[in-house]
């Protein structure tokens, strides 16, 4: 079983993540920010992961710190659960529609952190439960930098914040599920390391 538990504590947040890549999906999610819980449950369900998240943050200041630190901690857990990455599919892509919204996520478990996501180019209106598409960028940045993956996220259509953010999490979940599957025995790199 490829699993990891990571805890992160700062003056602004405390986050604990347990991630299982191979077992049955499920697990408790409680961050104190209901919309973030809803998004993490999308990762859990559509990624088919065991994902448990407990978190507390300075929500009286803003949601930014909590959203970012959950992304960082999830990235650390993903990297630890993957180990050296022997046999993983490595590359994956997924589309996720939600009503008027369509999002494409393409990723590579390359060991090289890179995020292609420009929220200022997205014509998104509003926020959902205090979370907007700029907060999505901070979550993704934490995930990418600490999970050491390359991730491209594209909004192909959509304007309503709830649909855009939720479709983004669903596309990410489906791509992560596919990329983390064991489909061989070798390291999927000519370098011999991810």
Radius of gyration, Cα only, in angstroms? 16 Å
Helix/strand order, N-terminal first: EEEHEHEEEHEH
Task: Enumerate the spans where pLDDT stays under 50 for 5 or more consecutive residues.
Answer: none
| Tally of helical runs | 4
Please tally the β strands and state the result.
Answer: 8
How much strand content do the residues show? 25-35%
What summary fits the major beta sheet? 4 strands, mixed
How far do the termini sit from each other? 19 Å
How are the strands of the biggest sheet laid out side by side? 1-2-4-3
Helix content: 25-40%
Return the average pLDDT rounded to an integer: 95
Shape: globular
Helix vs. strand class? alpha/beta
Family: Belongs to the imidazoleglycerol-phosphate dehydratase family.
Protein name: Imidazoleglycerol-phosphate dehydratase
InterPro entries: IGPD_sf, ImidazoleglycerolP_deHydtase, ImidazoleglycerP_deHydtase_CS, Ribosomal_Su5_D2-typ_SF
Pathway: Amino-acid biosynthesis; L-histidine biosynthesis; L-histidine from 5-phospho-alpha-D-ribose 1-diphosphate: step 6/9
Give me the secondary-structure topology:
Layout: E1 3-9, E2 13-20, E3 29-30, H1 34-47, E4 50-57, H2 64-82, E5 91-98, E6 101-108, E7 114-116, H3 133-147, E8 150-157, H4 161-180
Helix pairs in contact: 1-4, 2-3
């Amino acid at each position: 079983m490829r699993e990891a538990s990571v805890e992160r504590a700062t003056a602004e947040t405390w986050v604990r993540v347990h991630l299982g890549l191979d077992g049955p999906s499920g697990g408790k999610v409680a961050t104190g920010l209901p919309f973030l819980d809803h998004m993490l449950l999308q990762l859990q369900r559509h990624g088919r992961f065991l994902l448990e998240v407990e978190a507390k943050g300075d929500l009286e200041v803003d949601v930014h710190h909590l959203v970012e630190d959950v992304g960082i901690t999830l990235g650390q857990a993903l990297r630890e659960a993957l180990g050296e990455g022997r046999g993983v599919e490595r590359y994956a892509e997924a589309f996720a529609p939600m009503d008027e919204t369509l999002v494409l996520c393409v990723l590579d478990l390359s060991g090289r952190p890179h995020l292609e996501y420009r929220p200022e180019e997205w014509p998104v209106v509003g926020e959902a439960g205090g979370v907007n598409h700029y907060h999505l960028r901070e979550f993704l940045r934490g995930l990418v930098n600490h999970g050491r993956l390359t991730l491209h996220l594209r909004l192909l259509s959509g304007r309503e914040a709830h649909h855009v953010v939720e479709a983004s999490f669903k596309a990410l979940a489906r791509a992560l599920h596919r990329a983390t599957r064991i489909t061989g025995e070798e390291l999927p790199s000519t370098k011999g390391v991810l």
